[in-house]
Amino acid sequence: MSLPEALAAELDLLVRREQRDKRLPSVAAAVVRDGETVWETAVGAADAGAGVEATPDTQYRLGSITKTFTAAAVMQLRDAGRLDLEDTLDRHVEGAAHRPTLRRLLSHTSGIQRETQDDGWLSRRFAPAEELVATLAEAELVLPPGARFHYSNLAFALLGVVVERASGEPYAEYVARHLLEPLGLSRTGFASEPPAATGYYVHEYVEGVAVEADVETGGWISAGQAWGTVRDLCRWAAFIADPDESVLARASVEEMRTVQTIDDHLRWTRGYGLGLSLNRDGERILAGHGGAMPGFIAGVLVSPEDRIGAAALTNSSTADVERLVLNLVDRTVAAWPVPPAPWRVEEPPPDDVAPLLGTWWLEGSQMVIRRREGKLEARFIGIPEWKPSSMLERESEDTWRTVSGPEQGERLRIERDGAGEIVRLVWAGYPVTRAPRSFA
Questions:
Q1: What Cα–Cα distance (Å) separates residue 267 from each residue in 141, 143, 273?
Q2: What DSSP designation does 220 have?
Q3: pLDDT, tens digit, for every residue of 125-163?
Q4: Residue 231 burial (CB < 10 Å; 0-12/13-18/19+)?
Q5: CB 411 within 8 A of CB 400
Q6: pLDDT tens-digit profile of 29-61?
Q7: Is the full-model pTM beyond 0.85?
Q8: Contacts from 378-383 at CB under 8 Å and sequence distance 24+?
Q9: What's the pLDDT at 298?
Q10: Active site residues per annotation
């Protein structure tokens, strides 16, 4: 199926207005739907001095979108048994002066200061990783660990060192070999490759620009060095929404998308997972990240529920593309939603599972247990449609484990009488019976 013409025209108009109204030298944008990039455009000059127009294949700096690759690398290494998210930093970086857990570093809740302790933004010299580690005692813990969200580029610089130490590979080589290449992100990397945009500062009072200095980030590479295109970002968004299990387990990507902390403490419109920003737009939750480097602003967001996402890149230091990305997603969902998967007949349940199905009661609350795709689905009667069910997987003959939804992680135990008949279920420590009953 091809993008409806009216929607294509509307998306193109959004981008053109963004480029004109915000006075952007250029902006490239794309939309991904159900794993496929269905629309892309670019408006303006990638290089104003040379008169080179931008295209969807033009590279821009991605800034902090790099953090999403770093987080995925950490999760890969966790799944491979090379590290644990509850490990403290010094377990992988010997002698580290600060010892937050990897989870706190990933979720910006370590309390460590925002920028690296070398004052790189003042000197425009970014220290190598070895120097950052050796001088880490100079960095402050500005908040107690876990107190609240506090964005930290230093945290992700340290995570890059962890990736190197745990994998035995240089950070950039590891990410390229284990993420970028398997996912076909051929125009994403840690150095620019033509065609690439020139970064600009747009003058406020005249219709002109100044070229921004090119910044090499040193040990900060894992926090903001990457370059990429909107095409590649859409492939990455598709992966965040629907992971390729040969690259990273679906459950691990879902962990990345799970809120660890609230970013916006006033209206709760934004949270942060493990290396992923989680944005609320109305009733929709989108996962992704923004990015900024001198001369460049970037954004990518995807709605896993809708399986639609978007990316936008510009070569200006003076813009915010987040609202554009949200609008591209919103218009596409409204005009061309992904149809739901059809209901399909499944095999009958095993004989020993069938007695678990049907209506149960937890004190005065009624719930139904069904079998779906080899799992048990437990759902209380009358809860809002948007709330998820609990999904349980079998552990042993009389034990199931909740793998998602309410009571995730908790065990369901089957209790039987002397004849082997089910007397009750015990779920997360509560009795579950076939008829309503008091706890007394």
A1: 26, 22, 17
A2: G
A3: 899 999 999 999 999 999 999 999 999 999 999 999 999
A4: buried
A5: yes
A6: 999 999 999 999 999 999 999 999 999 999 999
A7: yes
A8: 378/405, 378/412, 378/427
A9: 98
A10: 64
